[in-house]
Amino acid sequence: MKSRFFSFAGWMLAAALSVLLTGCGYNDFQRLDEQTKSAWSEVLNQYQRRADLVPNIVATVKGEAAFEQDTLTKVVEARAKATSIQVTPETLNDPVAFNKFQAAQGELGSALSRLMVVSERYPELKANQGFRDLRVQLEGTENRITVARNRYIQAVQEYNVLTRSFPSNLTAMVFSYNVKPNFNVQNEAQISTPPVVDFKK
User: How much of the chain is helix, strand and coil, in % rounded to 5?
Assistant: First the structure.
């Protein structure tokens, strides 16, 4: 009789815990955490695609004898730095590591943008079909990076809202679900300053 009572009590306790965890957002935390990891994987996938393009771009540009060596060097160094940072699942929960990774990717993006601007001065390079194809691939990859980052931003926003909202914030405290870092604008001060327009020039 006692064993039947304890068995019934065990089932009731499990059912009560299940309802409690569902009602307090536990399952939502699991779903949104997986959603952010999936979105982050796509961001990494697109960053890797960009990094893989760099050696081909550099090799093609090197064929232009007079091309600025300093610009090429900065691209190669930025790629080396961006690919040297170890990204682990913990990166998503570590604002310092996340910002370090983001800064390195920002440097690579800036170096590649500078390379594309400088390449405009070289008619033979612009006429090179291989370079044109690589440029199109790079532009497409940058667009994919933007889309992937936007999806990640939305996924993290949903997760963070759940983490900070009542009563799910109590579940977050109990299970140590912390707010996740998100992408931010690297040159926030610069872009918040309105551009100076001088019509006299």
Answer: 80, 0, 20
Please indicate, yes or no, whether the overall pTM of this predicted structure exceeds 0.85.
no
Residue with tokens 């068995």: 7
Taking the alpha carbons at both ends of the chain, their separation in whole angstroms is 96
Mean pLDDT value of segment 125-140: 91
Q: Residues of 84-119 as b/e, b for ≥16 C-beta within 10 angstroms?
A: eeeeeeebbbeeebbeebbebbbbbbebbebbeebb
Q: Sorting pLDDT into bands at 50, 70 and 90, what band is 108?
A: very high
CATH number for region 49-185: 1.20.1440.20
Angle formed at CA 117 by CA 146 and CA 153, multiple of 5 degrees? 15
Residue 14: burial class (beta carbons within 10 Å; 0-12, 13-18, 19+): exposed
Are the C-beta atoms of 182 and 101 separated by less than 8 Å? no
200: tokens are: 């006299």
d(C-alpha 99, C-alpha 101), whole Å = 5
Chain segment 158-192, per-residue pLDDT in tens: 999 999 999 899 999 999 999 999 887 654 444 34
pLDDT of residue 173: 92
